[in-house]
Amino acid sequence: xxxxDSDSALPVSLRALRADETLSSTTEPAALRRRSRLLSHLxxxxxxxxxxxxxxxxxxxxxxPALERDRDRLRIRLxxxxxxxxxxxxxxxxxxxDVRLLEAPDWxxxxxx
Length: 113
Hints:
The chain has helices at 12-19, 29-44, 51-60, 71-88, and strands spanning 48-50, 92-95, 98-101. The protein is mostly helical. A 3-stranded antiparallel sheet has the order 1-3-2.
């Protein structure tokens, strides 16, 4: 993996995820943060939530990037990119629009808030 100077600015849990060989070397820090926030939202909802609730929660965050405030684009990204990657790692399962937290990955640490 090519080390990037921006890696040192990431929290330890996200650096561990970025270093995971199962992820693409092109994974962006914003995607890692989004997945961590997604897991945090699932955890705060008792481990289960519909995709629409996760989209609303992520889009409503005060520090959400502008592109994530567009709910349609964010939903597409979650359904086609983030959730499949988390499913492949055994962290979540999704069925008929609902997402269930299976087991928080080793790299995940709950976010404050």
